[in-house]
Amino acid sequence: MLRVVAFLPVLVFAVESASAETLCAPHSDLVEYLRDTYREVPTASGTTAGSNRVEILVSRDGTWMLIVTTPQGRSCAEVAGNGWRERPDLNKDTPET
Fold first, then answer.
1. d(CA 55, CA 89)
2. How do residues 33-69 score in pLDDT, each as one tens digit?
3. How many alpha carbons lie under 13 Å from residue 82 in its C-beta half-sphere?
4. N or C, which end of the chain is more exposed by having fewer CB within 10 Å?
5. Could you give the C-alpha distances from 32 to 40, 57, 59, 65, 83, in angstroms and in order?
């Protein structure tokens, strides 16, 4: 899925190939852009061993975006897709810590 950013000068993207792009911006700007443009909102998040925050943003239509945010607040959209489904049954046997 190729998404074109044409009107937001705050967002910076670098084309890596004809079929992939990296979209980066300050976290709040990127989340606002994805909400306003694709109706994707944060649904899940976690922290990597390197202290980066990983978030999944999902729309009601099932489109989704995975973004990674550095401790300095720079977020980059790493991968996007369609057909997101919640699977609550996957966590029902996970022991609580």
1. 21
2. 999 999 999 999 999 999 999 999 999 999 999 999 9
3. 3
4. C
5. 9, 11, 13, 13, 22
Residue 57 forms beta bridges with which residues? 42, 65
Whether residue 13 contacts residue 22, with contact meaning beta carbons closer than 8 Å, is answered with yes
| pTM for this prediction | 0.71
Separation CA 51–CA 41 (nearest Å): 22
CA distance 94 to 85: 19
Domain ranges of the chain: 24-83
**Tokens at 73, concatenated:** 């607040």
pLDDT at 96: 61
For the sheet with 64-69, list strands across it. 12-17, 20-26, 74-81, 64-69, 53-58, 41-47
